[in-house]
Design a protein that fits this description.
single chain, two-stranded antiparallel ribbon, flat, mainly alpha
């Protein structure tokens, strides 16, 4: 019979898998974009994919640096600046994006089952580690969805689907049964 440690290990593994899946989805969407697509803004009130990636990376670096010992909203974070485009090219965006993900994945990989019920703070609000992880899974999932949607809108008919193509569900389901 599984014990609490088994459940905790499963939770940490599943959380890592979920974050990696989110990253892969956004990466595959951004791979389909040229510089213009990464910086495209559908309307003046929207953010480009570059800005969304900058915000996500800034959030990750702040939240996951010294995760267990300092508030997740670091004093040096300038959240408002995350919504200002100061990039010169796509590579700058991708480098910052990778930096954020590296901090998150390294930190999460180091957590142990004993850490899950510890208290951390985000903007001085206490969270268990489980709550903080769930908060970030939800937050990053929201923004990954924005990235995919904007990339698809920009690419339009040239978009390469990241999941099951339209009108291909039956074929996909049949192939899964044969596996």
């Amino acid at each position: 019979m599984p014990n609490q440690d088994d459940l905790a290990v499963q939770y940490l593994d599943t959380s890592l898998s979920t974050f990696r899946s989110q990253k892969k989805l956004a990466d595959r969407a951004m791979e389909q974009l040229d510089d213009a697509g990464l910086f495209w803004v559908p309307d003046p009130e929207s953010n480009s994919i570059a800005i969304i990636a900058k915000h996500v990376a800034g959030n990750m670096i702040s939240r996951w640096t010294d995760f267990l010992t300092t508030d997740g909203e670091k004093p040096n974070r300038n959240r408002d600046d995350e919504f200002v485009d100061g990039f010169t090219d796509k590579q700058q965006v991708l480098d910052l994006w990778e930096q954020g993900w590296n901090v998150l994945l390294a930190t999460l990989s180091e957590l142990t089952p004993d850490d899950l019920l510890r208290t951390v703070t985000i903007r001085e609000e206490p969270h268990t580690v489980v709550q903080a992880i769930q908060r970030q899974i939800s937050h990053y999932g929201y923004h990954v969805g924005q990235i995919v949607y904007a990339a698809k809108a920009y690419r339009s008919a040239q978009w390469n689907t990241l999941s099951i193509a339209k009108n291909a569900s039956a074929r996909f389901n049949a192939s899964m049964k044969r596996s």
